[in-house]
């Protein structure tokens, strides 16, 4: 088992804020490693250090067996590339964006044309070469950014929340791309995410992060299985709640997560539990819905974030839930901050961790 | 009574008949100021990049000083340069005074503050992540800076136009270090100094004519460049960031 990159006692301080605190992590060749944690836990900083565009305040980084000298990382940067969370594109055509790294590497025009075409096919943007990159939709832009990285076939591919701002269709495409690229090209991938669902199925290993520290590393089943230790960590991620479960007569369990919120789940559980609900599984309504769904709560919209084709809303029903609806639905329902809404989801949608 | 209509008529006549005296004055204006802009770009753009892309103590002070120098009275700079270049001055031995070279260098110095100021703004307006983006795609430090410059190109072109306008329209520098020499091999009279001369001599219609022509030139060049900028937006697709 080769180690592609290794972080030893890495710390990063900005001013008087400790962003990374004694990070020790090995990236194994050919694996997909997910950094899972809430915003601000240090995921992006680790990725930037692994991309060699940011230097640690202290500690050592080894890349392909050699210690990295952060005073000049030109060589290493050719073997590691990062796709940013906020899509950044050059103000030119899709082709020029995707071909940029190849031009830097002095690849011939024929090869460039061929590789760009292949990369665009993988991300399902065939024929987009001449389009103005900045005029594409959010999802298409993100796919251009991914194609731009894929085309370089680097040893290390780093993705910062690659599907965070995408609608479900694009999320699916991207997850498929990540999986394919890893299996076919054996590309080592490190991705940051705060999507519990994604972290369960895509990576080989997860590293849980919280406030600059790595609290747990292991295969998803291992990490999610260690409930007692991880409860507090999980609590920091979207739509994850910890509480006490009590079995019900009907074969389900009700989990008391605090503030009067009881979530019904289809598993038989008793005692300390952590549960997670996918934002996409939550139905939003302006009036109470009479349905077969076992979980319905009334609350107020406390935050609205607009992402192109979809809108993420934080609803406070006693506990904060993040729901995700299409822009169309958002406009049709005429929702706004502080609006009273109902959230509904099936017991079977709730994942017990 | 100032004969404005006479002036307009005279202007038309001079332009249409291809009057060599006029076209000589115009070409000198364009060449001196154009060269000054190129010179200022050569040292101004790197200076803009240095200031915009780096964080250092005193950055705000330097930016403020530059901004203030934009309004430097041309005659004050002209006087300063005269003192330096005149026979008794420290650089008098070079013999630059009253030559086209002195005008070009003088105007280049004059427009450096405005070129650099607008340049710094343009570069600072570029998404700060572009630098990291270029680097993570394998670019070296200088290649990454070029990528940033390319993103700032619209603002940089604007800084070039603004500088050219200031150069071609100024009087103080070209008069004091150029001397407004209207004869011989190396003439140093340009549109602004000629207007000044004709006005003082009472040849008002010539002065008005030249004034109109100067305005037409400034307007015309701006029009060409702005239209070219719009066409450039179409060319952006063909432009490579590398």
Descriptive terms for the model:
heterodimer; A: 353 residues; alpha+beta; Rossmann fold; OB fold (Dihydrolipoamide Acetyltransferase, E2P); 2 domains; 6-stranded mixed sheet; 5-stranded antiparallel sheet; 10 helices; 20 strands; 27% helix; B: 242 residues; mainly alpha; MetI-like fold; 11 helices
Summarize the structure.
The complex is a heterodimer of chains A (353) and B (242). Chain A has 353 residues and is an alpha+beta fold.
Describe the SSE topology:
The complex is a heterodimer of chains A (353) and B (242).
Chain A: E1 3-14, E2 17-28, E3 32-36, H1 43-50, E4 58-63, E5 66-67, H2 74-77, E6 80-83, H3 94-104, H4 109-122, H5 138-150, E7 156-160, H6 168-185, E8 188-193, H7 196-201, E9 205-210, E10 213-218, H8 220-225, H9 227-234, E11 240-247, E12 253-258, E13 261-265, E14 271-277, E15 283-285, E16 295-307, E17 310-316, E18 320-326, H10 327-333, E19 340-345, E20 350-352
Parallel strand pairs in A: 3-8, 3-9, 6-7, 7-8
Antiparallel strand pairs in A: 1-2, 1-4, 4-5, 9-10, 11-12, 11-14, 12-13, 14-20, 15-19, 16-17, 16-19, 17-18
Helix pairs in contact in A: 3-4, 3-5, 4-5
Chain B: H1 4-16, H2 20-53, H3 59-69, H4 74-85, H5 100-124, H6 129-136, H7 141-151, H8 153-169, H9 172-178, H10 191-201, H11 204-235
């Amino acid at each position: 088992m080769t180690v592609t990159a290794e972080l030893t006692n890495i710390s990063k301080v900005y001013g008087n804020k400790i962003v990374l605190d004694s990070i020790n992590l090995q990236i194994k060749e050919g694996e997909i490693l997910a950094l899972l944690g809430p915003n601000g836990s240090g995921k992006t900083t680790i990725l930037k250090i692994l991309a060699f565009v940011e230097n640690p305040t202290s500690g050592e980084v080894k890349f392909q067996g050699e210690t990295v000298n952060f005073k000049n990382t030109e060589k290493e940067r050719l073997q590691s590339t990062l796709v940013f969370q906020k899509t950044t594109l050059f103000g030119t055509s899709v082709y020029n964006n995707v071909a940029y790294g190849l031009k830097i590497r002095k690849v011939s025009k024929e090869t460039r044309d061929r590789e760009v075409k292949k990369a665009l096919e993988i991300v399902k943007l065939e024929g987009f070469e001449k389009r103005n990159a900045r005029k594409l939709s959010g999802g298409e832009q993100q796919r251009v950014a991914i194609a731009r990285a894929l085309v370089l076939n680097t040893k290390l591919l780093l993705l910062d929340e690659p599907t965070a701002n995408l609608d479900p269709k694009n999320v699916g495409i991207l997850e498929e791309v990540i999986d394919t690229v890893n299996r076919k090209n054996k590309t080592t991938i490190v991705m940051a995410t705060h999507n519990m669902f994604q972290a369960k199925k895509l990576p080989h290993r997860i590293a849980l992060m919280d406030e600059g520290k790595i609290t747990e590393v292991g295969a998803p089943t291992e990490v999610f299985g260690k409930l007692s230790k991880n409860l507090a960590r999980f609590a920091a991620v979207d739509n994850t709640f910890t509480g006490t479960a009590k079995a019900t007569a009907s074969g389900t369990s009700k989990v008391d997560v605090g503030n009067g919120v009881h979530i019904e789940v289809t598993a038989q559980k008793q005692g300390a539990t952590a549960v997670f609900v996918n934002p996409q599984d939550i139905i939003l309504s302006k009036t109470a819905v009479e349905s077969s769904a076992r979980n319905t709560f009334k609350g107020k919209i406390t935050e609205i974030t607009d992402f192109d084709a979809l809108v993420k809303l934080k609803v406070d029903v006693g506990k904060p839930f993040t729901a995700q609806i299409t822009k169309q639905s958002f406009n049709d329902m005429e929702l706004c901050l502080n609006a009273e809404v109902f959230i509904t989801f099936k017991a079977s949608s709730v994942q017990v961790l | 009574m100032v004969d404005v209509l006479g002036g307009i008529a005279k202007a038309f006549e001079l332009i249409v008949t291809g009057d060599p005296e006029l076209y000589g004055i115009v070409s000198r204006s364009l060449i001196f100021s154009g060269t000054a802009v190129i010179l200022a770009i050569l040292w101004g753009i790197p200076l803009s990049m240095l200031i915009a892309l780096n964080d250092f103590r005193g950055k705000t002070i330097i930016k403020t000083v530059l901004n203030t120098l934009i309004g430097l009275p041309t005659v004050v700079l002209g006087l300063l340069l005269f003192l330096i270049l005149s026979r008794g001055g420290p650089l008098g031995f070079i013999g630059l005074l009253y030559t086209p070279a002195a005008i070009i260098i003088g105007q280049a110095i004059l427009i450096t503050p405005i070129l650099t100021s607008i340049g710094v703004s343009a570069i600072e307006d570029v998404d700060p992540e572009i630098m990291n983006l270029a680097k993570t795609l394998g670019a070296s430090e200088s290649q990454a800076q070029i990528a940033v410059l390319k993103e700032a190109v619209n603002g940089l072109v604007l800084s070039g136009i603004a500088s050219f306008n200031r150069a071609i329209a100024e009087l103080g520098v070209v008069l004091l270090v150029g001397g407004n020499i209207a004869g011989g091999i190396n003439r140093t009279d340009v549109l602004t100094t000629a207007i000044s001369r004709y006005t003082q001599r009472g040849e008002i219609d010539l002065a008005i004519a030249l004034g109109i022509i100067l305005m037409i030139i400034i307007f015309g060049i701006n029009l060409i460049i702005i239209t070219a900028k719009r066409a450039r937006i179409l060319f952006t697709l063909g432009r490579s960031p590398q």
